[in-house]
Amino acid sequence: MARRWRSWLSAWQDWPVEGADYAELDHERVLVPLHFRARGKTSGLELGGTMRVEGASLFYMRGGRVSRLVQYMDRDRADLGLQG
To answer: pTM above the 0.70 mark?
Structure first.
């Protein structure tokens, strides 16, 4: 996971991620809504300025530790299994 993130993040500079809050969905899952900002190293494109990027991290917990992490770069597309 670290290798993949490092590769993806290397295209960006100044990559702060702000957690807005958190919600315990059930005894195994914690949702953290996120706001991303960054500037492309090559393009200069700034995420979070004119383009608002709202994502989410979904942490799966087991024995008080994170057993799985699912990252959503588009919060509206997050499949949280909350329907019905």
So the answer is: no
DSSP string across the chain: -HHHHHHHHTTEES--EEE---EE-SSSEEEEEEEE-EEETTT--EETTTB-EEEEEEEEEETTEEEEEEEESSGGG-------
39-80: pLDDT as tens digits: 788 887 776 665 567 888 999 999 999 999 988 887 777 766
Instruction: Give the whole-angstrom CA distance, residue 84 versus residue 20.
Output: 26
**The CATH classification of domain 2-76, taken from the options 3.40.50.720, 3.10.450.50, 1.20.1250.20, 3.40.630.30:** 3.10.450.50
Is there a contact between 78 and 58 (Cβ–Cβ < 8 Å)? Answer: yes
- Cα(18)–Cα(7) distance, integer angstroms: 21
